[in-house]
Write a structure and sequence with these properties.
Elements (H helix, E strand, L loop, with lengths): L15 H13 L4 H7 L3 H4 L1 E4 L2 E4 L7 H13 L2 H9 L26 E2 L2 E2 H21 L12 E5 L6 H9 L9 E5 L4 H8 L7 E6 L6 H17 L7 H4 E5 L2 H7 L6 E3 L16 H7 L1 H20 L6 H15 L4 E6 L7 H13 L17 E3 L3 H5 L3 H6 L6 E6 L9 H18 L3 H6 L7 H4 L7 E6 L4 H22 L10 H15 L10 H13 L1
Parallel strand pairs: 5-6, 5-7, 7-8, 8-9, 10-11, 10-12, 12-13
Antiparallel strand pairs: 1-2, 2-13, 3-4
Helix pairs in contact: 1-4, 4-14, 6-12, 7-12, 7-15, 12-13, 13-21, 14-21, 15-21
The chain binds 6-O-phosphono-beta-D-fructofuranose.
Length: about 550
Amino acid sequence: MSTRVMPSVRPLRDRPAWRALEKHYGELRATHLRELFAADETRGERMVAEGAGLYLDYSKNRITDETLGLLEALAEQSGVADRIEAMFTGERINVSENRSVLHVALRMPRSASLIVDGVDVVRQVHEVLDRMAAFSDRVRSGEWRGHTGKAIRNVVNIGIGGSDLGPVMAYEALRHYTTREMTFRFVSNVDSTDLVEATRDLVAEETLFIVSSKTFTTLETMTNAHSAREWALAGLGGEESAIAKHFVAVSTNAEKVTEFGIDTNNMFGFWEWVGGRYSMDSAIGLSTMLAIGPERFHELLAGFHAVDEHFRGAPFGQNLPMLMGLLGVWYGDFFGAQTVGVMPYEQYLKRFPAYLQQLTMESNGKHVTLAGRPVEYETGAIYWGEPGTNGQHSFYQLIHQGTKLIPVDLIAFAKTLNPLGDHHDLLMSNVFAQAEALAFGRTEQEVRAEGGPADVVPHRVMEGNRPTNVILAEELTPWTLGSLVALYEHMVFTQGVVWEIDSFDQWGVELGKALAVRIIPELKNEDEPELHHDSSTNALIRRYRAMR
Ligand code: F6P
């Protein structure tokens, strides 16, 4: 029987390593990366870690060997190793919802077994994967026919949050591997424009909707699903029986799926121990599997699994997620950095920062400890980013010369999937140049030596000392994508353990949802409603009713 797990560790600020880090920060904060590199010629080869196909250069961080030792001690004193085992063995580490957290089981190989509450969850996972594969093969080959006998050419995933961001990101990231004979669209926003624009050039006879929702109660998704149903019926002659061929569901809630009118034979399940933002490799990835095929989907899972094994087994100094997690704590809690930029130098990863925003911020944007006490330190950073070179011509100015410290992850690949002239060398030169410029900047002396008006010198000086991680992989494949996502999942986990927070709940999104439900009738009522909100909300509602 799995148990609810509360760690027995000292409060964060009382841990000896934390105290030592406070003192160490005082000593190190004025040290420049220029000095650290000058003092150790091997730094750039030494402060690297490699695992599961990913190479991490963390040498351009404001750390010394002492910092690393203290961060490792902090991980130990925070019980990171025990918590990893607790997660991998299905203990209920999501304490506020009393749930196991088992996304790692989603990518365990068929030969593995993990018994939780008497059930082999790995067997369950592979049963669903097999059903997804059989279905995907039928749709991709044209064997699955729509109501009028036509093959499916368009797939529209309807979902939001974790039931959307993973699928969209994976589709864009793996576009190179997708079947180009089919069109994939993703509808998430309850703003009708999203659904209308996604379907306007599609033919219902050739369109399959995947309604993806863990709970199958989410307002946005259910509203879109009902409108999509109307759209499909209108294009299919209005026969209810047509729905079965054009709607499938991905959910944990069979009852609600049936209520919606989707046959549970056309439902692909997952389990409450898969958090929404950790679900792109569950049945929520059905659109991904339809796009890239089952074999490639299994490659994706293998990439995830490789990082799971790495995270569980690699020593601290080589453990990519732990290093990145602790570096995040170092900047957020000691340097006061509020945000982290993630810049993929890979066009296919254009939605990766958006995906990471939910993963990191919904997980670690927490204000109380597992025991419910207010935290006395900073928790999750704000994550943001854009594909690299585009960002350079937009907001990088602030990273280089602004007054805020913004640690940045630069993600790049040695090989491009679309070789074209010298594009890739030019792209990669920017990765290395940005990391170099951010770290070392340009001194006043260097600027003066270049000549030019004296009064412009201060404007051209670049302080440098801006930290980066460079993550390098060989090529963007389904496997590498899986490993990259798992890297960030476990980075988030590591930080959550250190901060002693629940990285797997999201109570903060509930209030807004509940208030919206209360306001809906006040907007829809024909008669002027009696309003009992604050004066601002009341006035806005009245103004909206008058203006629409
Ligand atoms: O509003 C937040 C949230 O609960 C996310 O955590 C989740 O990914 C999303 O809503 C969608 O939920 P569901 O898959 O149940 O529709």
